[in-house]
Write a structure and sequence with these properties.
The chain is globular and about 35 Å long. The protein is an alpha+beta fold. It contains 3 helices and 4 strands; from the N terminus they run αββαβαβ.
Length: about 120
């Protein structure tokens, strides 16, 4: 029997957050384990508040049936099974990373994590 069947499964909440009220919105997927939808929403809102987000709006909540194979959701799913509230952000154009350490806008095969250093010079 898998971990998720023993814990009640991993929930996913899809929505948007605002780091600053009336600022640009960021799409999010929040993965967590909770006994019911109300508890999941409460835990997600608490986790977002702890990370400094001022506003959140949720569109959907559901259960993840099979473990995702691709990042960043695979790591977020594992984190949720371990008791974390994993937040995956989709913030194109912003230089932020989600709480699993993956920026969803960088998923492509051509992603070069050192590209930001190409114009860097010592002492600049």
């Amino acid at each position: 029997m898998s971990d998720e069947s023993e814990t009640g499964g991993v929930s996913i909440i899809i929505g948007r957050v605002w780091p600053v009220k009336d600022g640009p919105e960021i799409d999010v997927h929040i993965l967590l384990v909770a006994p019911d939808d109300d508890s999941a929403v409460r835990a997600a809102l608490n986790a977002l508040a702890e990370r400094g987000y001022e506003e959140a709006e949720f569109d959907q909540i559901g259960a993840i049936i099979d473990a995702p194979d691709e990042e960043p959701h695979a790591s977020a799913y594992q984190g949720a099974l371990e008791g974390e509230v994993a937040i995956v952000t989709f913030a194109e154009g912003l230089e932020t990373e989600d709480d699993t350490g993956f920026d969803a806008s960088d998923e492509g095969e051509d992603y070069d994590p050192f590209a930001v250093l190409k114009d860097w010079k010592p002492g600049s």
